[in-house]
Automatic annotation (TrEMBL):
Keywords: Coiled coil, Signal. GO terms for cellular component: cytosol; nucleus; perinuclear region of cytoplasm. Residues 18-27, 40-55 have a biased composition (Low complexity). Residues 1-21 form the signal peptide. Residues 18-60 are annotated as: Disordered. SUPFAM superfamilies: RNI-like (SSF52047). GO terms for biological process: nucleocytoplasmic transport. Residues 427-461 form a coiled coil. This is Leucine-rich repeat protein.
Amino acid sequence: MLSSSSSDLLFLALAARLGHSDSSSSSSDDDESGSRNESTDSSSGDGDSSVSIGSVENDDEDEYEQVFIESMQNVKDNEDVRDLCAEGSYGYIQNMTNEDWEQLGRDISNHDHLGSLSITRHALEDENMSFLFRGLTKSNTIKYVTLYENDFGAEGVLAMVPFLQNVDYLEELNLNDNTITSEGFNSVFRALHGSAINYLRCSGCGIDSIKIDNDYIPRNLRILGLCHNSINADGCRELAKLLQRSLLSLELSKNSIDDEGVEILANSLCNSSLLQIDLTQNQISVEGLKLLLKVVNDISSIEATLRSNHTLNLINVVANDDAGGGGDKESEEVQQQINDTVMINRRNRNYPEAAGKEKVIHSQLNSIKRRNLAALLGVDGEVLYSEINCLHLPEVLSIIGETHGQGEIYVALRSSIAALFSTVDRKQCLQQQRAYHRAKLEAIEAEIAAIEGAQENAEVSRGVCNLASGHYTSFPTNELTSSRAVFVQPLGACCYRNK
Ligand SMILES: *[C@@H]1O[C@H](CO)[C@@H](O)[C@H](O)[C@H]1NC(C)=O
Ligand SMILES: *[C@@H]1O[C@H](CO)[C@@H](O)[C@H](O)[C@H]1NC(C)=O
Ligand SMILES: *[C@@H]1O[C@H](CO)[C@@H](O)[C@H](O)[C@H]1NC(C)=O
Ligand SMILES: *[C@@H]1O[C@H](CO)[C@@H](O)[C@H](O)[C@H]1NC(C)=O
Ligand SMILES: *[C@@H]1O[C@H](CO)[C@@H](O)[C@H](O)[C@H]1NC(C)=O
Ligand SMILES: *[C@@H]1O[C@H](CO)[C@@H](O)[C@H](O)[C@H]1NC(C)=O
């Protein structure tokens, strides 16, 4: 239940994200797109807010700068503007004084519509940040704040803290490529705990030591981007605290994570909310990779396979590209196995039981595949037919035939399963024999009794019964033979014929 809605959210978030970053000034869908039509949709993109300027199709920077200046004026006048986007290359930005930054901050604080604030690419240093956020201390509407590739550090980002504590609707914060360092990250993270943040990006921020306080974890955080920092095993230990929460995607490419770090993450992954983890370009050996494969398919037993995690749908460690992400042959093989397995999770999104079953069929019931996997993971390579309930064998065999073909069915039959079948048959056969002999025995006993009855009749009629007790009563001959059962017992109790 939870994982289905959260994965939907992730896809929504990713979709929103794509839509959002595609053009630097989109998002005014609410205004006009309702009256528009599919055919014109593709060409819109950045046309909406610059309608007044005309239908010019060139992405001249001056034009964007004009849009920014107009939007800024609208913010000041509390007109309906959803987006405010600026870059460091704008002359207007370069001319801004500290007072201008503070005023802009105040105007945004007092504005009732702005949904997205984006000031990027060398527009902001520590000092400008301080002034901007001296004015900008709250917002009841902002959902997206994008400040990537500026030149501020911990001091600049610390200036944001009051703002971050006062933005109830903030969903995304992008601080990529500012050297905010561990100090800045830890403070921002803490400040966000009461917010609605679900997407936090701090890649390339010079972070090497993370501190996460369990009581200050943003409860809606879905995606955390921390690529290109210096996070090591200690950082993984802290990040593991997030995996038991709401996190869906953790981006840790290009850090200093080794096998110890992977082990920490893998142990928490088994029981996490995570769907995607990117660990490319770290210091992870094939042994670390195996730990991750085990998370999604522990082939040590069928039971373990069924208990593996069936929700992770992306685990990247060895990248195929030439950017240094490639590994040795064995690592690539394990990554390939991981890819195949998470593909099963993907195919069975929201149906973990179906994923588990598919994994058993593809990895446990295919002797070749299982032998390969077993060799990789260092477990016993024999197919585990003995774990299968005999009652399910016909179904299992038919599945093997359908998915792996006659060859595998033959292997299955010839190897362990044949032995198992003969055991089953032997038991059934003995049971049948027992039932047969029981019936036979009853018939024999009945016949003996009948013969004895007849003899007794004869003896009774002849009057030669040895009366050891006084219970004997005499019956007429035909009555006795017709009710043999009644007769046999009193006869046994009272008559001894030891001759
Ligand atoms: C799109 O426009 C055409 C013609 O202008 C119209 O017939 C059609 O109903 C419109 N579709 C939608 C979804 O508005
Ligand atoms: C920036 O300031 C300079 C000097 O005051 C001025 O010439 C220039 O027009 C200004 N640029 C913008 C975009 O305001
Ligand atoms: C930001 O502040 C620095 C001083 O720390 C100043 O040199 C720079 O021009 C300011 N940048 C902008 C875009 O205002
Ligand atoms: C799994 O997570 C729950 C809380 O989300 C926790 O109570 C439980 O101990 C965890 N189990 C393992 C095996 O880590
Ligand atoms: C796998 O992860 C999901 C969340 O994505 C979690 O609910 C589930 O308990 C995990 N499965 C196992 C077997 O740990
Ligand atoms: C595994 O999948 C990822 C994408 O999901 C891809 O980039 C990578 O090249 C694949 N690796 C192998 C070994 O197939």
